[in-house]
């Protein structure tokens, strides 16, 4: 856990109790990652879905019990449910804004695949590229690499076993690595930072 995570864990009880300043800190820390995750699921409608998710998070926060890691997983679960509701309503899938052919660049092999994609392409292009993966792989990569959830927590969000999440994330990262020229290959033990 980082010092920021420790600080957020310390303010979470105050946010649950209704402290607006504490809630603002929690929101500012979690919103960017949730928004990137939702961008993979619902594309351009991510802001709208995130707003719905945060309304539910704010409404139900008083009943949440757990630490900062638990909150990240809980909020991702709520965001995913709102995204699935949205997709059912609209009956459409997210569309990648960037053609795959336009993102081929040389990469340095010393970094892991998720880090390389985020650094080379920038956040919007990386999210669009991840969104081009099959949904199970895209969600696993986003939950593990972007939201920083461990395999067990990501499994709870997705309703899958931790091993299935690890496998989907690995396959997604391997696919991303294959889309780039050069010696970029995710190794099972190092495909994601902090694999748990």
Automatic annotation (TrEMBL):
Keywords: Sigma factor, Transcription, Transcription regulation
Domain RNA polymerase sigma factor 70 region 4 type stretches: 128-176
All copies of domain RNA polymerase sigma-70 region, residue ranges: 27-93
Keyword Transcription: yes
InterPro entries according to UniProt: RNA_pol_sigma-70-like (IPR039425), RNA_pol_sigma-70_dom (IPR014284), RNA_pol_sigma70_r2 (IPR007627), RNA_pol_sigma70_r4_t2 (IPR013249), RNA_pol_sigma_r2 (IPR013325), RNA_pol_sigma_r3/r4-like (IPR013324), WH-like_DNA-bd_sf (IPR036388)
SUPFAM superfamilies associated with the record: Sigma2 domain of RNA polymerase sigma factors (SSF88946), Sigma3 and sigma4 domains of RNA polymerase sigma factors (SSF88659)
KW Glycoprotein (keyword) present: no
Record-stated family: Belongs to the sigma-70 factor family. ECF subfamily.
Protein name according to UniProt: RNA polymerase sigma24 factor
